[in-house]
Amino acid sequence: MRRGPAGSALNIAGRFALEYHLVMSIDEIESAVLKLAAAERARLAERLLESLEQLSNEENSKLWADEAIRRDKEWDLDPSAGRAV
Question: Between vectors from CA 62 to CA 25 and to CA 74, what angle results, nearest 5°?
């Protein structure tokens, strides 16, 4: 993760995000992020994707397997929730 000097906005934002995560659920974080401007969401998405590129092959495989299971359960609950190709 990129960090700026101790008092930089990037470093402060990183510390704030860590502290905020401790008191917010993932749903609350998602809701807050979706209220950001498109450019801010794009910047955040880029940083999140960069963080995933650093995963080991084992971690990556587990995440994809977990996602496949999640999608399968979602499909079982509501087949109309699938996306048309």
Answer: 60
Tokens 């969401």 label which residue? 41
Extents of the domains making up the chain = 1-54, 56-85
Cβ within 8 Å of residue 55, ≥6 positions away: 63
Q: Is the pLDDT of residue 12 over 70?
A: no
DSSP 56: -
Convert 57-75 to b/e letters by CB count within 10 Å (16 or more is b). eeeeeeeeeeeeeeeeeee
Model confidence band, residue 39 (pLDDT cutoffs 50, 70, 90): very high
Between 11 and 75, residue with greater pLDDT: 75
